[in-house]
Structure formats: structure tokens, C-alpha cells
From TrEMBL:
Annotated HTH crp-type domain residues: 162-236
Organism: Lichenifustis flavocetrariae
Biological process, per Gene Ontology: regulation of DNA-templated transcription
GO molecular function: DNA binding
Cyclic nucleotide-binding domain residues: 28-72
Amino-acid biosynthesis listed as a keyword: no
Segment forming the signal sequence: none
Coiled coil: none
Matches recorded under InterPro entries: cNMP-bd_dom, cNMP-bd_dom_sf, HTH_CRP, RmlC-like_jellyroll, WH-like_DNA-bd_sf, WH_DNA-bd_sf
Protein name: Crp/Fnr family transcriptional regulator
Keyword terms of this UniProt record: DNA-binding, Transcription, Transcription regulation
Length: 253
């Protein structure tokens, strides 16, 4: 882990400061004032670069911060005693990893990187201060937690009722839309740097079953997955196959 922390500095384009990934995500729910954007920028402390397949928080740790993904992909996961792993969420740029975990004594699951990640953290006292000072930011953080709950419910439906192919199709639809809302897609093409083993751990499938389902989606001309990039060729048909209804993400798309 890089030991040289720094504060987040929002990039500029044509003399205009661009919103950080967290602010861009919140814009799917509320318009933010300049004061709100500056408060979010100032809240992001200790920006660090962390390598791929490293733990950020381990199960049992005492959380003191809210972590924010600025670049890269991470996940929450839990290992069973026999070594089997279940990925319980995928975390993308702009995602809050663990709000407000600092209210709990210990973390119930581990938080780890899937790729190299640029990470910032918001101290507990800072989170409490900015949500007290701004009703808009308070609503945005509540919105984020509620959407996370909706995503978990959809994952439960996938694990309990969708077929293997439907699970993958639904996940592809969800990730594509989440990345689109953050301005991180190129038309129908987006980053997808997870392995088939990762997909299996997230969707409760063996790697062999994941491969067969991917071949079925490819064979149907619905998706392409190559070079850590996902391309959706027929979004309407993919959504129909997955029974994907995007309203659970509550985004202005």
C-alpha cells in the first residue's frame, strides 16, 4: 500500500473543475451546490493507490472511516471456514464502500480490491459534520444507502430464482448502467475487469457454469467479453432475458 497520503484534488477541464466520482454519482439523485461539491472534495482525505487483490478492511477490523473508490474496482466478500468465498457486492468508482460502518464495533465482512484502486476515506467526524451542515448531502448519503439495499435485494433474487444465464445477464445490465451513470462507458462498451472465478463467487456458480453461461450469451449475440471489456450488443434483448427493471437503481437515466 502506498504510504504517501494526500488530499483529493478535483480535476479541471477548460478552466472548470469537474466533480469527483462521488459527487457525479450523487448528481443522479440531487443537484449539488458549489458549497456541497467543495464539502465533498474537502471530505476526501488520505488518497492512496492500492494494488490489485489486496484487503482494505478485513473482517473483524474496527472501522473508523468511510472509504470511497475513486478509480478501480473492489468488492465486499466473506470466506467460509473451508475457504469458499462469497462476493456480496461489487464496488465501482464513486461508490461508498462502508457507510456508516464506523457506528459498528467490527466489520462483518472484508473489503478487498479486484483491480488496482485509488481510494479515499472520510473520517467519521467529517461525515457527521457535512451531513449536519447540508440537508442535500444528508439526503444523498441516505439515497446511496437505500440504493445499496435495493441492489442487495436484487442479488438475493438472482441467487434464489434466476438461472445462471439470467444472473449473469442481470449483472451485466446493472454494472453497465452503474458505470454509465458515472460517465464511464463508451457507448455500449465498458470496463469489466473481473475474472470468471470472481463472477462465480458473486453469482453462486462454479467457474465451469459461468463459462457455459457466458458462451450462451455470446452465442445469442447479446454480449462480448474480451480484454477486460464488456460490450453489450443487444441491450433490449439482454434486459428481457434477465427480466431487468432498472428502477431499483433509482438513477436519472
Amino acid at each position: 500500500m502506498d504510504a504517501r497520503p494526500e488530499r483529493f484534488v478535483a480535476p479541471r477541464q477548460q478552466g472548470r473543475r469537474l466533480a469527483n466520482p462521488l459527487a457525479r454519482k450523487f448528481l443522479n439523485f440531487r443537484q449539488l451546490s458549489r458549497t456541497d461539491e467543495e464539502a465533498l472534495d474537502n471530505a476526501l482525505e488520505r488518497v492512496q493507490r492500492i494494488g490489485s487483490r489486496e484487503d482494505i478492511v478485513q473482517q473483524g477490523d474496527a472501522p473508523r472511516f468511510v472509504h470511497v473508490i475513486l478509480e478501480g474496482w473492489a468488492c465486499h466478500y466473506k470466506h467460509l471456514q473451508d475457504g469458499r468465498r462469497q462476493i456480496t457486492s461489487l464496488l465501482l468508482p464513486g461508490d461508498l464502500c462502508d457507510p456508516p460502518m464506523f457506528l459498528l464495533k467490527t466489520a462483518g465482512q472484508s473489503l478487498g480490491t479486484l483491480t488496482a484502486v485509488t481510494l479515499a476515506r472520510i473520517p467519521a467526524e467529517t461525515m457527521q459534520a457535512i451531513t449536519t451542515q447540508s440537508a442535500t448531502l444528508q439526503e444523498c448519503f441516505w439515497w446511496d444507502m437505500l440504493v445499496r439495499s435495493e441492489i442487495q435485494r436484487e442479488w438475493t433474487v438472482s441467487l434464489g430464482r434466476r438461472t445462471a444465464t439470467e444472473r449473469l445477464a442481470h449483472l451485466f445490465c446493472e454494472i453497465s448502467l452503474r458505470l454509465k451513470s458515472a460517465g464511464m462507458t463508451n457507448g455500449v462498451d465498458c470496463e469489466f475487469p473481473v475474472t470468471q472465478a470472481d463472477l462465480g463467487d458473486a453469482m453462486g456458480l462454479s467457474t465451469v457454469h459461468v463459462n457455459r453461461s457466458l458462451q450462451e450469451l455470446r452465442g445469442g449475440g447479446l454480449v462480448g467479453l474480451r480484454g477486460k471489456r464488456l460490450r453489450i450488443y443487444n441491450e433490449e434483448s439482454l434486459r428481457a432475458l434477465a427480466n431487468f427493471e432498472p428502477s431499483y437503481l433509482h438513477m436519472n437515466q
